[in-house]
Amino acid sequence: xxxxxxxxxxxxxxxxxxxxxxxxxxxxxxxxxxxxxxxxxxxxxxxxxxxxxxxxxxxxxxxxxxxxxxxxxxxxxxxxxxxxxxxxxxxxxxxxxxxxxxxxxxxxxxxxxxxxxxxxxxxxxxxxxxxxxxxxxxxxxxxxxxxxxxxxxxxxxxxxxxxxxxxxxxxxxxxxxxxxxxxxxxxxxxxxxxxxxxxxxxxxxxxxxxxxxxxxxxxxxxxxxxxxxxxxxxxxxxxxxxxxxxxxx
Amino acid sequence: xxxxxxxxxxxxxxxxxxxxxxxxxxxxxxxxxxxxxxxxxxxxxxxxxxxxxxxxxxxxxxxxxxxxxxxxxxxxxxxxxxxxxxxxxxxxxxxxxxxxxxxxxxxxxxxxxxxxxxxxxxxxxxxxxxxxxxxxxxxxxxxxxxxxxxxxxxxxxxxxxxxxxxxxxxxxxxxxxxxxxxxxxxxxxxxxxxxxxxxxxxxxxxxxxxxxxxxxxxxxxxxxxxxxxxxxxxxxxxxxxxxxxxxxxxxxxxxxxxxxxxxxxxxxxx
Lengths: 249, 270
Fold this sequence. Notes:
- The complex is a heterodimer of chains A (249) and B (270).
- With 249 residues, chain A is an alpha/beta fold.
- Chain A has one domain: 3-Layer(aba) Sandwich (Rossmann fold).
- In chain A, 34% of the residues lie in helices and 26% in strands.
- Chain A starts with a strand and ends with a helix.
- The model of chain B has no long low-confidence stretch (mean pLDDT 92).
- Chain B starts with a helix and ends with a helix.
- The relative contact order of chain B is 0.17.
- Chain B has 270 residues and is mainly alpha-helical.
- At the A-B interface, loops of A face helix 8, helix 9 and helix 12 of B.
């Protein structure tokens, strides 16, 4: 099985405070990992380290066997960030233009788009159920619509690794169901490796096949069989919640 | 005297041609700067250009030739302060611009003879542009516009969201450096047109005008350029007819253009 992510003894300090401490784990093609932990436990920081947005204070990270500092095959990676509220509402771009941004990683400068790219954008918009919004300005969208647009941007490349930071936070219950169903299909049919940050630990067993519990350091990483028998996790969540999570799985 | 008579003057032709190229250049760059909340870098680099022009006059070098490398250096120092020394962007602009301005004032004081020349750059004089200056401005504007066209998607991606751009393989540090170097060139070219004190308006006003009405990124670039050119042409001709300072009149027309679009969009929104 292809090794997609390899995190080796990674720590990250910010203004003297340790945000991530000595974390090691690896993920293979087809893994669907729910990354859980309390607020401030370092989940988003860990994801930004994996993506090379932040540089570790110590340790190293590889993507598809290459150190992330030297990694260049960004067309194999899709990313949906957490704070969609931080996007400038006056930004003058259409939904179609934003989704097309997801394709620039596979093109050399000067980047030019062709008919295949237009088709890929149309398909991503269809898959996210937002084809009717294609020519709408992004500033006019609701939080849920914007999240779908950014997800379309993340998947338009058909990435091998998809990292989603609290993707369902701004969508309603129906849309959430469709969303997880679609991500599950990507994982099963195309063996896309998924890392999904979520606060909803109770439901994570319903879609993920592995769970990574972070509290600045790695507290637990394994499949749900291991999770269900872990005394550490029973101590963390209590026997009842642990049972619910296992039952969902 | 009608408009056609005015257009027969060589100085007016040079002013309109040079002004149009510089206006388009600033309007397009300004959009990227405004969206990245870097509008004031234009103001800061204009102050740097004042110091750089003083250096040129002091050394007996043609001022704009001295200004190009020095203002580019200033822009890269601002970038280095923000990226390497963790100084906030606005503070870095403040540091570099005030040091350059102070240097210019000291040089002007030491070499009292060129004060009149130096202060003419504060307000610009588009009607005094020579043929050599016009040709240099056109060539430099075309080079800058070509570079923007080559890096269009990278600049768009970084303006939308720097983290997402990085995960799309965009070398964001390189794109930021390109953006500030191009801005430095645009500022130097604009100083002759509107003067040190008004350069930032050339970068900011057309961009904010277009943001009120544009529905796509390409539209925003187009509207910004149109707004800048219309303001430039109206401003130059109005200033000539009513004997007003040209740079200041162009800026005021730019502002009225923004105000009209603002009122129109507010009324339309009900």
